[in-house]
Amino acid sequence: MARNGSITHVIAGDANSVFIPNLDEYPLGKKALRGLRFIHTHLRDEPLNNEDITDLSLLRFDMIAAISIREGLPHTLYTAYLMPYGSGKKYEMQTADFYRFDLDFAGFVRALEEEMDRSRTIDRKDVRERAILVSASTAPKHELEDSLEELKELAVSSDVVVLDTVVQRLKEINPRYLLGEGKMREIVINAMDKGATLLIFDQDLTPSQMRAIAESTELKVIDRSQLILDIFARRAHSRDGKVQVELAQLKYTLPRLTGKGTALSRLMGGIGGRGPGEMKLEIDRRRIRDRIARLEKELDVLSEARRQRKQKRVEHRIPIVSIIGYTNAGKSTLLNSLTKSETFVEDKMFATLDTASRRLRLPREREIVITDTVGFIRDLPKDLMAAFKATLEELEDADLLIHLVDVSNPRFEQQIASVERILKDLNITEKPRVIVFNKIDRVAPEEVEFVKARYGAVALSAKRPETFGPLLEAVEYQLWESKKVGAEIP
User: Fold this and answer.
1) Closest by alpha carbon to 134, among 202, 194, 182?
2) Topology of the domain comprising 318-488
3) What is the pTM of this model?
4) Start-end of CATH 3.40.50.300 domains in the chain
5) Helix (H) or strand (E) holding 320
6) What CATH class has 130-232?
7) Residues 192, 60: contact at Cβ < 8 Å?
8) Are the C-beta atoms of residues 356 and 332 closer than 8 Å to each other?
9) I need a labelling partner for 352 at 20 to 30 A (CA). Which of 35, 335, 338, 452 fits?
10) How far apart are CA 120 and CA 116, in angstroms?
11) Which long-range contacts (C-beta less than 8 Å, at least 24 apart) are formed by 48-52?
């Protein structure tokens, strides 16, 4: 029943339960309540049960009511409604004589929804997504928490408001929901109570898990790979970057394509199910495959253009130095400070995505080309890794790698290990490189000296050119002096 008193659905069930149909015509959006009341009968004189309260919480009804029947006539009315977030109670239940129940429902539900909006502290003018972050796997809890912190940084980089986080260490992975159905329901209800519009999972979801979780809630559901792809899509500006991002997105989407919502998925496959839904789905899949083929050809053309540009640099015998490192380590800031250029810089993960190359004259009047590459991250999505392989292949032609590390990040050791794994995947672990600790102005001097000695590194602050001396000396030594020393060894 709608708020104006009109009956929207009539449902016939049995003595145990009723099946509530799809309520797409009454979407939640950013509202706290759906704008519908659910009134049903209990053939025995029994109060609302757990199933009723679950329906109330998940479907966000204005109110749920059960009318008990005695001698074929209405007898007792059991009602329940959700309470504002933070009130100390999830819901309020009441019992009344059916014939004496009196309530100004319009005034009641208006006041309740206003109080819910206040408790959520939501600015309706703020159009950003509001998310609950979920990390659930069999890994040790401290690893889950570290990974979740990184997911939070990624969410902020994608302009998402993080409302809450959930960490769940599992004995085994649930093949349907990743975690248990009860825990999944609890997360969804908590998200709706807090006004979330999005669930972000730290683990990559299989296509079947994505569908199952999406069908259990009206919230949008994405995983870590989708979040990273979204950030890349926002930050790609060059033609190379745009092509590579679109290619990665299409490869990620293809196995997860199930039709628009559940309307088409109900028509998929099986006897009696091969109809317009499947036809539309196959058309979509074919279009995506065709688009992937075209993008891969374009990527080959762009790769050839890059190869020709690199060949010219080789002919002029100008050494190439590439700055690599974990995302947000300060690579673009260092490039700008070294070359007095203006590559875009922002204190967010993957703030810059497109490769930038600049000439740099060293103190001994030697010249190099220095390149800023896309930031690395652990568990980089496979589709994204494959799409960006053409860009990362530029590292193969580098004469030297500057591995920049944010020494102020408490997870810098794990970040170094992640970068090393990616270099191994690219088969360039033998490439000469200098480890450089950045952001030393944020760390105690004695700690900087310790990590420098431990890793045989140099240290600087990318915002302070006066600290660049050791780096420039290390670059000159690796490119010229070390080769001379090597030649003298018998």
Assistant:
1) 202
2) Rossmann fold (3.40.50)
3) 0.77
4) 318-488
5) strand 320-325
6) alpha beta
7) yes
8) yes
9) 452
10) 6
11) 48/78, 48/79, 48/80, 48/93, 51/17, 52/80
Domain(s) of CATH 3.40.50.11060: residues in the chain: 130-232
| Whole-angstrom distance, CA of residue 166 vs CA of residue 134 | 5
Q: Which of 368, 375, 316 is nearest to 348 (CA)?
A: 375
- The rounded distance, in Å, linking the Cα atoms of 442 and 457 is 17
275: Cβ–Cβ under 8 A, 6 or more apart, which residues?
267
Rounded to an integer, what distance in angstroms lies between the CA atom of residue 396 and that of residue 241?
A: 19
Q: Which two tokens stand for residue 371?
A: 């390149």
Closest CA to 26 of 18, 36, 40: 36
Strand partners, 69: 74
Three-state secondary structure string covering 68-127:
EEECCEEEEEEEEEECCCCCCCCEEEEEEECCCCCCCHHHHHHHHHHHHHHHHCCCCCCC
Tokens matching residue 345: 């810089």
Take residue 142 and report the two structure tokens written for it. Answer: 């401290």
Enter the tokens of residue 143: 């690893």
Bridge partners (DSSP) of residue 160 are none
**Which residues fall within 8 angstroms of residue 133, CB to CB, at 6 or more apart?**
148, 151, 152, 155, 162, 164, 165, 166, 200, 202
